[in-house]
Amino acid sequence: MSAPGRFFPLLFILAASVSLAQLFFPQAAIYHGPRPTLAATVAALSKIALLALCALLSWRNSRALEGADHDIAAAWTRLAAGWFFYFLGQVTLGYYQLLRGVDAPYPSLGDAFFLLAYPCFFAALLGFLHGYRAAGFGVGTRAQQVALAAAVGVAALTVAIPLLRPALAAPTRPSETALNIAYPALDVALVVPLVLLMRMVVALRGGTVAGAWMAVLAGFAFMCAGDVLFAHFSALGRVGLDPYVHATYIVSYGLVAEGARRQGALLA
Amino acid sequence: MASILPQPSESVVEALTQTLTPYIGANMARSAVRAQRERLGFEGAVMSGEQAEGLITKVGNGLNVFLGRERAAQVVEEMRRTLAGGDARA
Fold first, then answer.
1. Which of A61, A118, A255, B84 sits 20 to 30 Å CA-CA off A5?
2. Is pLDDT of A152 > 60?
């Protein structure tokens, strides 16, 4: 692994720590002063930079695999498109937070970009599942996969419904409530292909491919957790817990970028 | 290039598994090699050179999805070298 590559995880963990440290040192100067504060600037710029990396590195993997396997290359393209929409959404939020020094409206144009990413993520994850199975790396029979998907779906709903109840009951505008439900609901749906891919990655353990995929899937898991936290805290009006949400998203995007980078290194 | 001589099927599976393990782990390597062997219908206790070559090609094609064409081709060469230097006293 190249030296800059080895230190990349430290960079995004450091960026996430800047947000998280607010919970322990709330009086520190970087969290106060005229908006945007230094900490908010670090969080917003980190997310924008990491999302750009997620999109670029996924795109690079897609190009590198085009001659090798069309289905898997197409799945990486869809993943790149999804992360590009996320990047556009984050840039929109950054415009409000960094240039205008105000909170981004909710909903905003950024949410349209974030929502557009989900069909791309679904198509990408299903494409990977199909492509890897076709190449002989499937785990279990198709019937077992369907049964597992159904079980995971039911389990995810069982966990999500109580978590989302405050969001549904909160006195927020209908558009805000709809988004507070939509993001976690889409994430819950995303958990199904993620678990199926995780099963494959567990079978790959001990190999270099597993490291790349473990990072990508952990990144998606952190993204789902971030959306649930955001909806929960937003519905409860607990803005003081925002650092958790910022840190979760930074780690999420950092892990996906790290996984895409590791996959790229395997192709180099 | 040295040709692959007939070898016990289990030795072939084991040799290919060991070559693939650094990339896809021992469990997936073993199950992928066995699955491809089954698909090709190579059920005998001894595998001919042609059969071993066919198995290598099949497994190597699958690796494209993770390693890309060039790196997968290098692994295929490694598998060929391993088997060409293998035990021929089948």
1. A118
2. yes
For the segment A70-96, the average pLDDT, to the nearest whole number, is 97
Inter-chain residue contact A65 with B22, CB threshold 8 Å: no
Supply A122's token pair.
């679904």
Mean pLDDT to the nearest integer, A62-89: 96
Between CA A72 and CA A81 the distance in angstroms is 14
Is some CB atom of chain A closer than 8 A to the CB atom of B67?
A: yes
Residues of A in contact with B20 (CB under 8 A): 207
The region that residue B25 occupies, defined by phi over 0 for left and psi between -120 and 50 for alpha, beta otherwise, is: left
CA distance A156 to A166: 17
Residues A256 and A220: beta-carbon distance below 8 Å: yes
Of the candidates B23, B26, B29, which has its C-beta nearest A208's C-beta?
Answer: B23
- Under a CB-based contact definition with an 8 Å cutoff, are residues A92 and A108 in contact? yes
Candidates A111, A97, A109, A60; CA nearest to A265 is A60
Count Cα atoms within 13 angstroms, Cβ side, for B55: 33
Extents of the domains making up chain A: 3-267
pLDDT of residue B1: 58
Q: A39: burial class by Cβ within 10 Å (0-12, 13-18, 19+)?
A: buried
ipTM above threshold 0.95: no
What letter does residue A70 receive in the DSSP assignment? H
User: Which of A69, A128, A200 is the mutation pick for testing B, counting most B CBs within 10 A?
Assistant: A69
**Contact call for residues A59 and A77 (beta carbons, < 8 A):** yes
Comparing CA positions, the residue from A115, A83, A85, A109 lying closest to residue A95 is A109
Q: Which residues of A touch B21 (CB under 8 A)?
A: 206-207
Residues 6+ apart with CB under 8 A from A261: A5, A8, A53, A57
Q: Give residue-wise pLDDT tens across range A5-42.
A: 778 899 999 999 999 998 899 888 888 988 889 999 99
